[in-house]
Specification:
heterodimer; A: 4-stranded antiparallel beta sheet; 17 helices; B: alpha+beta; 5-stranded antiparallel beta sheet; 8 strands; 42% helix; globular
């Protein structure tokens, strides 16, 4: 057992082969793997006998002392003995071998396979021991055990061979037992010649070895035949193996120790892949979360509360129920003008007072009203096609402008330019400062123009008509529209330019269309759409929420507030008893006024500012002339 | 029923049997997995709900898949813990894109040799007579110096979780999508179900290591170590 300290893993393989054949040359060189084998070393040539006949070996081993003689005798005989007989014997013994091998296995750390290897190594060592005739009687017994071991090892060896040695070598490996097979073979032959046993023996051994080598592929049994040779081989092997091979258990152990790895521990991983994260996580978001949600309107979680009851309701007797007219407007001076049949009334939101600004001649009616940007003048379109401009403070008409031969249903101011759209489909631009007021004629629509909106910077004009067209005009070239969009399937009255994105235009269609389309006015591309489910009569962007409010006719007569760009309907307020015809925002952007066919005018605080809320958005909108900070009141 | 008395006594003195201790440690592992997944953003914060545990609000994933996954791990871990096979539990966070291990939480488990615990084993108690009760009481009172009350253990665990939570302040920002793996350093003799396989240690090459707090029960001592990739 002293040899146990020596470590050479390779031998184990050889041992398999040699052990059976050689009958234990143990003395040669103890390998670490052979540690178990040192006992075997004592074993003498009997080992081959063992291979020949396990039973014999066992009995002989018991006897011990006689073994060498027996072995030699047996060798000659044994060589040719068929492995089969050995195998049978082997079967009986393998358990012991395994036990011996176990320690080796643990050393190698390869597990069950390693056990086989170790057993093989032990067997090899035993064979080597056997080869040394000097082996003690005890050794014989050991040999037997080893031989037994060897045999099982052989069976197991096949595995080893697979592991350590490629193909052919595996078979040879059996004989030699290790990777070094080729070398061993050569050496073995040499060693055999050189071996003390004697040339004749050697020769026979070599023959046997050769046959064994040839037969190796055939099976383990032949190894037994070549026991003598094997023993020689083993010696050689042992000598050659004196250096530790990386496969040796001892080597591994030392390596493991050096690396601080515990061979008794397995690192186990739970193999199934963890479930995918539902979305990418940005920890910065998680840890730098603002105390208050920044964009209150952005997430449904923090959706703001919207008052669903009107702030105030006024009567609007005589309001004409006509989709194509525009009879309501709120000035930057906080005054509301409304056209009621033949009259225009101005209601001052600050004072709560109502004044009748004008009354038309009985043969016509008011078809549109529009405040100038500064809130000082109001433009009034009449059913005759006449356009009047009134100074509200003085209560006097400043001028009348003629040109249209049909009613003027819609108007829009851009500084000193008043654009008017008529039932004829024509749109005129009037410079109200000069006598020859008509400065441009915009020809695009073939049916009544009912929607008209200047962009806040005055660079573009959008018009919508009863011909289902939306035309977008460049203020610098009004000969032809920049874009003409045909997506709507009904008259387009509702038009609104986005206050925070000047290129964004929202348009809403009539009863057969019910859609709100969003356009990029630079490219003409449609960027979004909403199916509202009802006639869209007007659209207004909030100046400080990312929202847009639409008013609708049949069937709901409601206000809807939509988040943009998510297009989520934040709230729908059933506003009136009949269709909502007109709407306008207060100059501070918080209040919406709606006029409906039920002859009422209602005020809704739908865009109420939270105290301290950022006003950047409203300030960005240049269309709101009044300072956003100024609180507007209604009396 | 004689054992019931001692059991109660035991509970009064908050002694934990080896089995109880193993369960406690396994439960700790479960919460630490959830906590790390939350704190390190492996899964979105909305997937987690707060649960009262250890006197803290522990965040536990409410995602069915994640829960099932951790449950599977825990079912096996419980067995290994009871058998005393677990030497380390490691949670490795890996960058999905590069496959690089970016963070590694290691919990070292040490099974304390405890002569007292053997005394306190339920078997001996059940066999014990009334006189044994007294012994139990005596032993428990003796051990009370060394042994911690359950409240103390809970406090230690709570302190450890607070430290894990606080560690996000020095751990580097995890970039990109990450996933995680659970490793168990088990005795070589452990029975291994098919879902578990041998793995390398998934160590972080050239990583920084920070030793965190630990806690101990009567039978186990748990040490925590986090290692993470240094960001240039």
């Amino acid at each position: 057992m002293a040899t146990a300290s020596v470590s050479t893993p390779i031998k184990s393989h050889t041992g398999l082969f040699s052990s059976r054949t050689a009958g234990g040359r143990m003395p040669l060189t103890p390998s670490p793997s052979q540690r178990t084998t040192p006992v075997k070393i004592s074993s003498s040539p009997f080992t081959p006998e063992k291979s020949d006949g396990v039973h014999r070996a066992a009995s002989r081993s018991v006897y011990g002392g006689n073994l060498t003689a027996h072995l030699r005798a047996s060798r000659a005989n044994n060589h040719r003995d068929s492995p089969k007989s050995n195998i049978a014997r082997v079967v009986s013994t393998p358990r012991k071998v395994l036990e011996l091998g176990v320690s080796n296995f643990t050393l190698t750390g390869t597990g069950a396979h390693s056990k086989a290897a170790s057993s093989s190594s032990s067997s090899s060592s035993s064979s080597s021991s056997s080869s040394t005739s000097a082996s003690s009687p005890n050794g014989n017994t050991k040999k037997k055990t080893t031989a037994v071991k060897k045999k099982p090892a052989k069976t197991t060896i096949a595995y080893k061979g697979d592991r350590f040695i490629p193909n052919r070598s595996a078979s040879t490996a059996y004989s030699d037992g290790s990777v070094k097979l080729g070398m061993r073979e050569g050496r073995s032959s040499r060693s055999r010649t050189g071996s003390t046993d004697g040339s004749s023996v050697l020769a026979s051994a070599t023959d046997d070895a050769i046959s064994a080598l040839e037969s190796l592929s055939i099976g383990d049994r032949r190894r037994d035949d070549s026991d003598n040779h094997d023993s020689h081989d083993d010696d050689d092997e042992a000598s050659s193996y004196s250096r530790p091979s990386p496969r040796s258990a001892a080597y591994r152990e030392t390596l493991a120790n050096a690396c601080g790895v515990n061979l008794n521990t397995r690192i186990l991983q739970f193999k199934p892949a963890p479930p995918e994260s539902s979305k990418p996580v940005d920890l910065r978001q998680q840890y730098n979360r603002p105390l208050k949600p920044a964009g209150a309107a952005n997430s449904a979680q923090f959706r703001r509360r919207i008052a669903t009851a009107p702030e105030r309701v006024l009567d609007a007797p005589g309001l004409i129920d006509d989709y194509y007219l525009n009879l309501l407007d709120w000035s930057s001076g906080n005054q509301v003008a409304i056209g009621l049949e033949r009259s225009v009334y101005v209601w001052s939101a600050d004072e709560g007072s109502v004044n009748c600004l004008l009354e038309t001649s009985p043969d016509t009616y008011v078809s549109s009203v529009k405040w100038s940007g500064d809130g000082a003048y109001v433009g009034v379109g009449l059913g005759t096609g006449e356009v009047q401009i009134w100074d509200v403070a003085e209560g006097v008409k400043v001028r009348s402008m003629f040109g249209h031969d049909s009613r003027v249903g819609v108007m829009g101011w851009n500084k000193h330019i008043l654009s008017t759209g008529a039932r004829s489909g024509l749109v005129f631009n009037h410079d109200v400062r000069i006598a020859e007021h008509k400065v441009a004629e915009l020809v695009s629509h073939t049916s009544e123009v009912c929607g008209l909106e200047w962009r806040s910077d005055g660079a573009q004009l959008a018009t919508g008509g009863n011909d289902n067209l939306v035309s977008i005009w460049d203020a610098r070239s009004l000969a032809v529209p920049k874009f003409t969009k045909t997506n709507h399937k009904a008259a387009v009255k509702a038009l609104a330019w986005c206050p925070w994105n000047l290129n964004l235009l929202a348009t809403g269609g009539g009863s057969y269309d019910r859609h709100i389309h969003f356009w990029n006015a630079s490219t003409g591309a449609r960027v979004n759409s909403i199916d509202t489910g009802s006639q869209v009569t007007s659209l207004r962007w909030s100046t400080h929420y990312r929202e847009i409010v639409s008013t609708s006719g049949f069937p709901d007569n409601s206000l809807s507030i939509w988040s943009y760009p998510t297009l989520v309907r934040n709230v729908e307020i059933p506003a009136h008893e009949s269709r909502v015809l007109h709407s306008c925002l207060s100059p501070d952007g918080q209040m919406l006024a709606t006029a409906a066919a039920d002859e009422s005018l209602k005020f809704w605080k739908v865009f109420e500012k939270k105290p301290g809320h950022s006003q950047a958005l409203s300030s960005a909108s240049s269309s709101i002339k009044a300072s956003s900070g100024q609180q507007m009141t209604i009396r | 029923m004689a054992s019931a008395g001692p059991e109660k006594d035991k509970s009064k003195t908050h002694k934990l049997s080896l089995k109880g201790s193993a369960k406690l440690v396994a439960e700790f592992f479960q919460y630490s997995i959830h906590t790390i997944l939350f704190q390190r953003g492996v899964y979105p914060a909305e997937d987690f709900t707060a649960v009262k545990k250890y006197g803290l609000n522990m965040l536990v994933s409410s995602d069915d898949q994640v829960r099932a996954y951790i449950k599977k791990i825990m079912s096996q871990l419980d067995k290994w813990m009871l058998a005393g096979k677990v030497q380390k539990l490691v949670i490795v966070i890996t960058d999905k894109d590069t496959g690089e291990h970016v963070e590694r939480w290691q919990f070292d488990v040490q099974i304390l040799s405890k002569p007292k615990s053997s005394k306190s084993s339920s078997k001996s108690r059940s066999a014990a007579t009334a006189s044994a009760k007294d012994q139990e009481n005596e032993s428990s009172s003796k051990s009370s110096d060394a042994a911690k009350t359950e409240a103390e253990i809970q406090a230690e665990i709570a302190a450890l979780f607070r430290q894990i939570t606080a560690s996000v302040t020095f751990l580097p920002q995890l970039q990109g999508d990450c996933t995680f793996n659970v490793l168990v350093y088990a005795d070589a003799s452990s029975e291994v179900p098919v879902e578990w396989g041998d793995s390398d240690a998934k160590e972080i090459v050239g990583g920084e290591r920070v030793q965190l707090r630990g806690f101990s029960t009567q039978s186990h001592r748990v040490e925590t170590l986090v290692s993470y990739r240094l960001v240039e």
